Amino acid sequence: MTKLFYIAIATVVALGLAVPAAWASVPSVDNSTVLWVNLVNDTTAMICPTGDASYLDVTVKDQFNAPMAGVLVEASFDGAEIYLVSPVSGTTDISGHVNLMIYGGTDNSAGEQTVTSGTEVTCLGVTLYSNDKDFLSPDMSQAPGSENVVEALDYGIFAVDWLSFEEGSRSNFNRLCNEAGGECVGGLDYSIFAAHWLH
Ligand SMILES: [Ca+2]
Ligand SMILES: [Ca+2]
Predict the structure, then answer these.
(1) Which strand ranges, in their side-by-side order, compose the sheet holding 33-37?
(2) How many angstroms separate the CA atoms of 139 and 156, rounded?
(3) Contacts of 104 (CB under 8 A, 6+ apart)
(4) DSSP conformation class of 22
(5) pLDDT, tens digit, 9 for 90 and up, residues 46-82
(6) What span, in angstroms and rounded, lies between the C-alpha atoms of 84 and 86?
(7) Which ligand is nearest to the CA of 142?
(8) SS3 of residue 54 by DSSP
(9) 161 phi and psi angles, rounded to 5 deg
(10) Domain 25-195: which CATH class?
(11) Contact call for residues 44 and 23 (beta carbons, < 8 A)
(12) Which residues, in sequence order, are bridge partners of residue 74?
C-alpha cells in the first residue's frame, strides 16, 4: 500500500511538472498571420493621422494552431521620419484576430523622396513580422502647427511637388506616373490628398 502511494505521488508530481510545460501556449510565427491591408502597392504603405489608410490585419495562433484570445499585439516602426499619433497596438478577439490601425504621418521635409521604415509586429515577446516599406502620407509636414494634421503646410509641400516627374516622390500618392503628360504628381494624387484634408 505504501509503495503504491509513493508511486501515485510520483506520478502526480511527474504529470504536474510535465503538463503545464507541454500545454503552455505561445505565439507561433508559422501559424500566425500578419497582412497589410489597403497598401498603395506591394512596397508602399500610406498612413494618415485619422488612421483611414493602410493597416495591419493580425491573427495570432499558438504552436497547436489554436487562436490566442486576449493577447496584446504591438507594431513598431524604426524610421525616424514616422510620426505616430499614438502607439500601434491592440488586443486579439476570441478568434485571435486584431486589426492594428496606424494613426500617424511622416516628416518629408528633408527631400522629395518618400521615407522608408522597418515595421515589426510582436506578441508576448515573439516577433511575428518584420519588413521594410516605403511610407507615404498626406501629413508630410511636422512643423509647428502641422504636427499630425493635414493642413496648409502639407498642402505647401504637395504644391511644390505638383507635376513632378519623380516616380518616388512623397506626393505621388497613387505611385503611378504618366497621368497626363508623363508627370508622376497629378490630379489623381490631388484627389487622394484632398480626401485626407484636415485629418
Ligand atoms: Ca502636417
Ligand atoms: Ca501619381
Answers:
(1) 33-37, 55-59, 97-101
(2) 11
(3) 47, 48, 49, 82, 83, 84, 85, 137, 139, 148
(4) H
(5) 999 999 999 999 999 999 999 999 999 999 999 999 9
(6) 5
(7) 1
(8) coil
(9) -85, -10
(10) mainly beta
(11) no
(12) 89, 122
Residue 138 near residue 47 (C-beta atoms within 8 A): no
Give residue 16's identity as a one-letter amino acid code: G
Ligand 1 centre distance from Cα of residue 24 (Å): 46
pLDDT digits (tens, 9 = 90+) for 120-133: 999 999 999 999 99
Grid cell in block for residue 165: 516627374
Q: Determine how many CB atoms are found less than 10 A away from the CB of residue 123.
A: 24
Shortest-distance ligand to the CA of residue 186: 2
Domain ranges in the chain are 25-195
Q: Which amino acid is at 188?
A: L
d(CA 137, CA 44): 11
> How remote is the CA of residue 147 from the centroid of ligand 1, in Å?
5
Question: For residues 198 and 52, is the Cβ–Cβ distance under 8 A?
Answer: no
Ligand 1 centre to CA of 37 (Å) is 23
Distance from residue 75's CA to the centre of ligand 1 (Å): 22
